[in-house]
């Protein structure tokens, strides 16, 4: 019995393709959790990173918070929050967001900091208001790096979102958790393979986004 | 600028009680060694740096009394390496200030195209991105961008220092041309004294510590440096460089030693007789120079027998410096003067140029003396 055999068996079983435990449902759930976590993390990390990067203040505090957040084990946090808050979406989302904010925050900060100072100086010298300097000069020039930060955050979320299953939510973690419990290794391998495929899909989506969003004038540096 | 001082928070005094009256519609150059406060001075004019003391007036209005972004949009700003927006096309870069001022897209685009032409950029570059342009082209875009909203004032901080000497010379000529066409008030920072002398109607030499050493026209700077620092900063060849400011107009050009190719022996002999000059310049049928004929030999032989005439100067248009240079480079010690179309109008010896130089200096001294007397009287 090798892994490829498991994979083959998992995907060729037609029963796996329907129902509440079917592949489409689980994939959709997984994408839903991941997207929600990414949106929340970006809503926190991007503005804070952009503003601190623009003003250059708070870099040390940022680095400290990011390191601290990275030291927290996601699974441990999930269990702790589950015990404290009971069953719910929040104990699942918080560890995912905590996981994703540091890479977004730190790369955004660094990306804005590392923008060539001369166009920024020229923009100010031409009478551009600060908000436009940030959004129309620094952001587009820093975009390749910022997208890189979002991408690594997204991939970490996709692979870590499997933990939702431990607190009886869905997603691809369901196959892994249930499979381990039922000693159904075909299911475990299938779940892991789907998670990996989803991570690859994430990469592809980010590639496409950067083709569209990043100006050809700065793309070559990406 | 009235007694302007800038002290940075760390205590560095970058500019020290600087007072300057910058004339309208001319190029004023700020020049001095590295760290003498040129950039700081320039940036105080558009309030990129706020002065610690003193006031800066533009057309009689204190810059502090205007909203900072309105002030900056009324002044073009060009920096070293151009500082172009990498994510915007050339046309969009140039249209930046018009768009900030709320012009429509079409109007801004039309303006960008017009400016590209003005600074000598091919319109096919409009859709390119900055990284696809050479350094010199990028610098032109920088100038076009600064001119976009037609500001009366241009601030330029070492705009041409990152390009090679040949491209730099082209850009300098272009700037002089644009200035001639548009009559902008330009304040230009450089650490290159030759560039300062080339471009400046007036030149402010600054010394380390942010003090003004001398504020004068280039010719005066070269003839009468205020002190040892300025003299040292001007460097070698001050005397010869000063000749750039004397026109070759009044030079006594001799026409006798010029003979057409194929002249008869008698004509040649007559020419030698009349001019008393040792060499004769032979010209072709159109009056363009062919070369010098040596004493004794007859013109009309093959051109190989003629001595090369070197580089001619354009009479009346080139300076005495160019005329002298031509004479020094010529194997005969005589310079060939031509008109705008390259036809010979006469020849002149080193000695005659020397006399003209002495005459010009004497006239300069007289004018200087008169000026000084007027100052005292006033
Ligand atoms: N933001 C700053 N904080 C502290 N000191 C500064 C600052 N900017 C400039 N200085 C100092 O002020 C002095 C003048 O600087 P400035 O940039 O005006 O010189 P500069 O004449 O333009 O020199 P360069 O030819 O090298 O560009 C220097 O001693 C510099 O170190
Ligand atoms: Mg400087």
Low-confidence segments of chain B: 371-378
Largest sheet of chain A, in brief, is:
none
Basic shape of chain A: elongated
Shape of chain B: globular
Give the DSSP E fraction of chain B (strand runs of 2 or more residues): 15-25%
How would you classify the quaternary structure? heterodimer
The succession of helices and strands of chain A, N to C, reads HHHHHHHHHH
Number of strands of chain B: 17
Compute the number of helices of chain A. Answer: 10
Distance between the termini of chain A: 43 Å
C-alpha end-to-end distance of chain B: 23 Å
Number of strands of chain A: 0
Ranges of chain A where pLDDT stays below 50 over 5 or more residues in a row are none
Describe this structure in words.
The complex is a heterodimer of chains A (222) and B (378). By secondary structure, chain A is an all-alpha fold. Chain A is built from ten helices and no strands. In chain B, 38% of the residues lie in helices and 20% in strands. Chain B is built from 14 helices and 17 strands. Chain B has a six-stranded mixed β-sheet, sandwiched between helices. A three-stranded antiparallel β-sheet of chain B has the order 2-1-4, with helices on one face. Chain B is globular. Residues 371-378 of chain B have low confidence and may be disordered. The complex binds adenosine-5'-triphosphate and magnesium ion. The site of magnesium ion (MG) has 3 residues of chain B, from helix 1.
Write a brief structural summary.
The complex is a heterodimer of chains A (222) and B (378). With 222 residues, chain A is mostly helical. Chain A has helices spanning 3-12, 23-55, 59-71, 74-85, 90-113, 117-125, 130-160, 173-182, 185-213, 216-219.
Sum up the structure in keywords:
A: 222 residues, mainly alpha, 0% strand, elongated, B: 378 residues, 3-stranded antiparallel sheet, 38% helix, binds adenosine-5'-triphosphate
């Amino acid at each position: 019995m090798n892994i490829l055999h498991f994979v083959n068996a998992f995907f060729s079983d037609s029963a796996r393709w329907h129902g509440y435990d079917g592949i489409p449902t689980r994939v959709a759930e997984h994408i839903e959790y991941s997207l929600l976590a990414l949106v929340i993390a970006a809503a926190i990390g991007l503005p804070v990173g952009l503003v601190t990067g623009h003003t250059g203040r708070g870099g040390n505090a940022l680095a400290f918070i990011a390191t601290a957040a990275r030291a927290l084990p996601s699974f441990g946090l999930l269990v702790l929050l589950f015990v404290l808050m009971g069953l719910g979406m929040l104990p699942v989302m918080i560890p995912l967001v905590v996981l994703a904010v540091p890479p977004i925050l730190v790369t955004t900060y660094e990306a804005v900091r590392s923008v060539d100072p001369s166009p920024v100086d020229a923009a100010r010298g031409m009478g551009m208001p600060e908000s436009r300097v940030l959004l129309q000069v620094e952001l587009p020039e820093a975009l390749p790096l910022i997208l890189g930060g979002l991408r690594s955050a997204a991939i970490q979320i996709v692979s870590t979102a499997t933990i939702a299953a431990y607190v009886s939510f869905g997603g691809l973690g369901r196959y892994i958790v249930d499979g381990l419990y039922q000693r159904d290794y075909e299911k475990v391998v299938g779940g892991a393979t789907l998670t990996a495929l989803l991570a690859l899909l994430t990469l592809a989506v980010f590639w496409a986004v950067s083709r569209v969003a990043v100006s050809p004038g700065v793309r070559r540096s990406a | 600028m009235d007694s302007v001082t800038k002290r940075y928070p760390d205590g560095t005094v970058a500019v020290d009680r600087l007072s300057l009256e910058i004339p309208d519609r001319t190029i004023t150059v700020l020049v001095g060694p590295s760290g003498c406060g040129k950039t700081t001075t320039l940036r105080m004019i558009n309030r990129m740096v706020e002065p610690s003391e003193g006031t800066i007036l533009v057309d009689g209005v204190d810059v502090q009394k205007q909203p900072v972004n309105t002030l900056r949009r009324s002044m073009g700003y060009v920096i070293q390496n151009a500082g172009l927006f990498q994510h915007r096309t050339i046309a969009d870069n140039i249209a930046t200030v018009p768009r900030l001022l709320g012009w429509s897209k079409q109007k801004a685009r039309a303006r960008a195209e017009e400016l590209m032409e003005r600074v000598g950029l091919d319109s096919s570059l409009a859709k390119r991105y900055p990284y696809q342009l050479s350094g010199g082209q990028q610098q032109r875009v920088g100038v076009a961008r600064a001119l976009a909203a037609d500001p009366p004032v241009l601030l330029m901080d070492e705009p041409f220092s990152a390009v090679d000497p040949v491209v730099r010379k082209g850009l300098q000529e272009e700037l002089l041309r644009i200035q001639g066409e548009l009559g902008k008030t330009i304040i230009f920072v450089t650490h290159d004294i030759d560039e300062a002398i080339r471009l400046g109607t007036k030149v402010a030499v600054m010394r380390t510590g942010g003090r003004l050493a001398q504020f004068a026209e280039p010719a005066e700077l070269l003839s009468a440096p205020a002190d040892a620092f300025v003299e040292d900063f001007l460097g070698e060849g001050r005397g010869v460089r000063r000749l750039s400011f004397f026109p070759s107009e009044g030079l006594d050009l001799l026409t006798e030693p010029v003979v057409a190719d194929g002249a008869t022996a008698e004509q040649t002999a007559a020419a030698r007789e009349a001019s008393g000059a040792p060499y004769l310049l032979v010209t072709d049928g159109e009056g363009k120079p062919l070369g010098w004929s040596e004493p004794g030999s007859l013109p009309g032989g093959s051109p190989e027998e003629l001595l090369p005439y070197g580089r001619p100067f354009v009479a009346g248009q080139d300076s005495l410096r160019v005329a002298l240079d031509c004479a020094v480079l010529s194997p005969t010690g005589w310079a060939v003067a031509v008109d705008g179309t390259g036809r010979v109008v006469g020849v002149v010896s080193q000695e005659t140029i020397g006399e003209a130089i002495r005459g010009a200096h004497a006239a300069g001294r007289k004018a200087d003396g008169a000026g000084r007397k007027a100052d005292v009287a006033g």
